[in-house]
Amino acid sequence: GLPFGAHAVAVTSAGSKLDEYAQEHGFIARLPMWDWVGGRTSVTSTVGLLPAALQGSDIDALLAGAARMDILTRAEDVWQNPAALLAAAWFIAGEGVGKRAMVMLPYKDRLLLLSRYLQQLVMESLGKRLDRNGEQLMHGLTVYGNKGSTDQHAYVQQLLDGPDDFFVTFLQVLRGRDGDSIEVEPNVTSGDYLFGFLRGNRRALAERGRRSLTIWLQRLDARRLGALIALYERAVGLYAELINVNAYHQPGVELGKRAAAATLRLHQRVLLAAQDEAQDVAALALAAGSDDYDEVLAIALHASENDQLRCLRQPGQPPWLWRFARH
Fold first, then answer.
1. What CATH number does domain 39-249 carry, 3.40.50.720, 3.30.830.10, 3.40.50.300, 3.40.50.10490?
2. Any idea what the Cα angle at residue 297 is, between residues 295 and 298, rounded to 5°?
3. Predicted TM-score of the model (pTM)
4. Paired residues of 145 in beta bridges
5. For 189-226, what is each residue's pLDDT tens digit?
6. Contacts of 241 (CB under 8 A, 6+ apart)
7. CA 41: distance to chain centroid?
8. Which of 4, 29, 62, 237 suits 190 as a labelling partner, its CA being 20 to 30 A distant?
9. Which pLDDT value is given to residue 257?
10. Is-catalytic flag, 124?
11. Does 183 qualify as catalytic in the annotation?
12. pLDDT tens digits for 164-190?
């Protein structure tokens, strides 16, 4: 029975339906989400900072680390600019055409989701069909990975013995933990084992002529995490300059959104077509004004499993002969 608005905060664009709802229901606060900040670069905006603060993260330190990296990555000398060095390493590893995938192996459990974050940041920014001159490019930089501590075995066999179509980024956190560590063997802690796995795999890859690079963090805290996020954001922008693409738009994503909207409109027409009597897929498609039988069947099956339509079928009857009707 509590009023929801008295306990709610909205993060949204001004004038959106959520913004209107928040005003109408007296939300505690309405925090801005600017349309010029893409989702993949919104970690250091309100979109990322509010959830981080609610989890107890030191967002001031996070922003300070990101700001410090911003300064470092403005250096004109490539050798003094960590983002430029990282972008150059990607360019060289992929021979300028994205020839090799980026395998992320952070040796820290708390960085488990780093590879998923980088998948969106890198692939949405650099996966482009056209360059900025409108010339066909068909460029992409594929990213996959997981935490190296336990999941390296899912990849290392292929990385060592499979095709040479990747480069590895090892991420090493030098400070294992605060306080004492349990010794697994005399003078060898679990953190030492982790260090050994990283260095051993790095050496094994080098012996096979496989490419890798290593990023070291002194320790993992909010400040250094902010710096790491900013490093990759800047590296993506600089790499985009090297291949002459716009890193900050996503026409492929917009195409997918338009296709999804078209499916929803067809969904509405299919439900209307089944209003009066049970019809098979061909009849539903005709009534809904579509020649895409596969799409109409998928919509009808989805609707029937979610109590919007009834599915009438005989044993052994193929799906395209099943009949669908409103309840």
1. 3.40.50.10490
2. 65
3. 0.84
4. 104
5. 878 878 888 898 999 999 999 999 999 999 999 999 99
6. none
7. 11
8. 62
9. 87
10. yes
11. no
12. 999 999 999 988 777 777 787 888 887
Residue type, 133: N
Q: Structure tokens of 260?
A: 């999804």
The tokens for 16 are: 């959106």
Could you state, in order of their start, the residue ranges of all structural domains in the chain? 1-33, 39-249, 252-325
Across-strand partners of 102?
Answer: 143, 167
Which H or E element spans position 215? strand 211-217
For 139, the 3-state DSSP assignment is strand
Q: Which of 153, 183, 241, 305 is catalytic?
A: 153
Structure tokens at 168: 């590895």
Q: What is the rounded average pLDDT for all residues in the chain?
A: 92
Q: Are 91 and 239 in contact (CB under 8 A)?
A: yes
Q: What is the pLDDT of residues 246-260, one digit of tens each?
A: 999 888 778 888 999
Catalytic pick from 108, 124, 128, 267? 124
pLDDT for position 186: 84
Rg of the chain (C-alpha set): 26
User: By C-alpha distance, which of 270, 276, 279 is closest to 306?
Assistant: 270
**Catalytic annotation on 257?**
yes
The two structure tokens encoding residue 31: 């925090």
Report residue 127 as tokens: 């996966």
Choose, from 25, 99, 249, 257, the residue flagged as catalytic: 257
Q: Which helix (H) or strand (E) holds 77?
A: none
| Tokens matching residue 91 | 């360019």
Phi, psi of 106 (to 5 degrees): -80, 130
The encoded tokens of residue 208 equal 């096979």
Q: State the Cα angle at 57 between 55 and 61, rounded to 5°.
A: 160
| CATH T-level assignment (fold) for domain 252-325 | Arc Repressor Mutant, subunit A (1.10.10)
- Write the single-letter amino acid at 172: Q
Nearest by Cα to 250 from 167, 129, 146, 160: 129
The CA distance from 166 to 201, in Å, is: 15
The pLDDT value given to residue 177: 73
* Lookup: tokens for 295: 């799409």
